[in-house]
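Can anyone check this?
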Amino acid sequence: MKTLRVGAAALNQTPLDWDGNEANIRDAIREARDRGVGLLCLPELCVTGYGCEDAFFSSAIRRMARRVVEAILPETKGMAVCLGLPVMHRGALFNAVALIIDGHIVGLVAKQHLAGDGLHYEPRWFKAWPAGEVSVFDWGGTELPIGDLVFDLDGVRIGFEICEDAWAAHRPGAGLADRAVDVVLNPSASHFAFGKQAVRERLVIDGSRAFGVTYLYANLLGNEAGRAIYDGGCMIGSSGKMVAKGERLRYAPFTLIDAVIDIDAARTQRAQLASRVPSSEVDKGVINVEWTVPPVDQQPATEAGQADWETTDSHQEEEFTRAIALGLFDYMRKSRSAGFIVSLSGGADSTAVVCLVRLMVDLAIAEIGLEATRDRLGVPAVKPATAEQLAHQILTTAYQGTRNSSQATRDAARTVATAIDAKHHELDIEDLNNQYTAMIEQAIGRPLDWGTDDIALQNIQARVRAPGVWMLANLENKLLLATSNRSEAAVGYTTMDGDTCGGLSPIAGIDKAFLRRWLAWVEVTGPAGIGPIEAVGAVNRLTPTAELRPQDQNQTDEDDLMPYDILDAIEHEAIGLKRSPAEVLATMTAQYPDIPKAQFRGWVERFFTLWSRNQWKRERFAPSFHVDDKNLDPKTWCRFPILSGGFRRELRELKNSPGAE
């Protein structure tokens, strides 16, 4: 019986952080060796980081990546390890994996299918390697095979699917099965999105079953380059069964899973697959390596389990909480900030942001402990001694009121800030607002009036809030967080240089309707193992309002726009599915038959008009986290012209169509 202990590790890497990336790789290899792992799969482009963008074109970057690989070679003594890095070959750049065995590079496999949709932009930098092609690569004077390779290690055949390869319609795994591969390694950089893990699990399980192999999947972990958050969540499948699975969204620098696989048993399973037909190309591109597979010890392997939160009835709320909290944790430490500043209005959006910061602290401490959390965030060791003190040191909030602000929102902001242990300030900006208003009135020679100057008078209140919180951010060396959500971004219901101010916009990728549901969940239930933040109820009981008009006007967000669930539904149809105004109206009136068609016609017209008019705002938003495939970030997901015709003909035809009320 031939057995082999295999492992897959998730790494929290950072683009071009040579020291940090190398240290994580070394630590993962060392722990794998301590566990007796003979074959270890590490993530895609783990040496450089996946998110290097146009820096991939730099020859200096590629040289440094090779130096790092060469420095790591001695760590692989007695093991087989794969490392991802970019390589230039015959005038083209490739996303490649180096297979290292016992301290020596034995070959390079290049990615065949490039991720070029959504936030992925690989075809800008890399070329796809042609299936079946093999060449010779010059590694500093040493010739190495490169291409569509299979490695025969002491009779155990190893092949690769690199991330997107497994998602392609014609995935390379089928060809690997024809070449009698026993183990498929998948080094990945697969970003977080709601529900995406279930798809990955099917790829691993179905791949292992259909190809009759053991399948190793290794992913990146954490907020790598700023916008995308990676789950981690390594997996090992064999003959259609999940035999090991790592927890997702962890705070450790790396995580590792392992399993003992029975090569002979897997081959027996493969031999019984009626669909598998022996191929004449069984030995094509096979590199024979003289290496003795290390014996398997008696250490227990990783169990194929999952964290408790993965099995709750609130899976999406849990995913959102843990993804954004981890994203904030990594952004804080990688940007070398001392914490966060939030302009806390007493409304849903800013409350969601500050709760996520506090939950970041609690989740990190629950996993890695207070001391490790403090150390990784770079907080001085003298204090804090408790989670409450750490939260107080990291998070500063400020309520900034005018005469249009209500006592209810002031009290709600104070209640939430106290409950989450933030350092809270209450600032009166009425005089600043009046000074700007008086200055402009003098300049234009007339008084400003709500009847004629509504937008200007609203926006100046939002804008005079910015300098104070920016000043606090400078004084405390903290990162100012913007609080705009995706629903407001879609229609520009946000003041540029006001509530959009900040270096990071953590909830700009999520809609308002979900945020309100999430806050209700946080008030009553909260994340598994952490519990609720009951003080959020003070905000949940309020009607969402910008509080920028006089209080006697009873301003509400939904009166200004439309019901948020309707707005989000229209956005999905218009932007997500790219439907015309007429198509959106037809879909919406069928979906909501109790709402008059004339009302919907007005909402559809308002959405398309505001969407087109406000693309420039979306271009200026601070970086946001990607949490689902409805993101409106024009830099990573949803491109639209800043200047356009604004759907004027379509909306005119909609207004004049038969049956228009």
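Reply from J.R.: I decoded it. The mean pLDDT is 93.
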